[in-house]
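Handout, page 2. Input:
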Amino acid sequence: MATQAEPKATTAPSPRPEESAARSGQTTLRAILAAVFLVIGFWPILVGMYGSWFDPGAYMEHGILVIPAAAYMVWTKWDQLKTVPLRPSAWGFALVICGALQAGLGELAHWVWVSRVSFLVSLVGCMVLLYGWKMIQETVYPLCTLLLMIAPPTFLLARLTLSLQLLASRLGEFCLEMFGYSVFREGNVLEMVGIKLSVEEACSGIRSLMAILFMAVLYNYFFVKGKSMKSLILLFSVPIAILGNAARIVATGIAGQYDPSLAGGAAHETMGYVSVAVAALGCMGMHIIMLSLQRFWRSRHA
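Output:
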């Protein structure tokens, strides 16, 4: 008795190595052209952003390290990125147009932060147009890291600086009195015997806060596992940076009681770098403590 033959399953033919290599070469060429057009189109904005990294009032000394750090993050997972399937999306073109319009609006209205962020919007749009949304998902952390190369909005930076000035002054007053020193505070000025400490904008802690946030982002990427743990370290980096700056003020005040010249100049700047290093070690110590608590919790509830 004749039986009906079952239909054979058909599979799509896999591309030959020559076709894959040619397609990869075309995508690389398009990526290079897109990068060139991005740099040319956003050149005035990029020049202004570069200048802000060396502006003492912007507190963005770490900005020059952000792009190399993000590039190294991408390089560490390059083998994984090469396996991401290419699914270009037309939505990328819409993002590029939105970035261009945002840049024009920011330049006309003198919204520096808005115009600089527009470069990242167009960069994401080019990646979506060439590689697809899966590539954005795989590189979201380096892309978010690039936000740290852009100085915060001026109004936000001014308000944050003033708040940190007053907070650092109060913490310094409290700690110095706790150590037995006589302190009179008026606003952001601390008067002690023989010296007067003025917590200026540069000493408010905003510079160390920006640097510590950048270091915490790098430390999270390379050494911390788990989104909750990374979020906690970023969260704790803010009070750690504030406490480190308060310790700098206290150390300056105590040193100034023995030698007034130590309250300013090179010694004062050196204390600033030391406070940043101590705050960075504090973030690492917080990670170690959280890992110990995590292991203890798991051992008790195993």
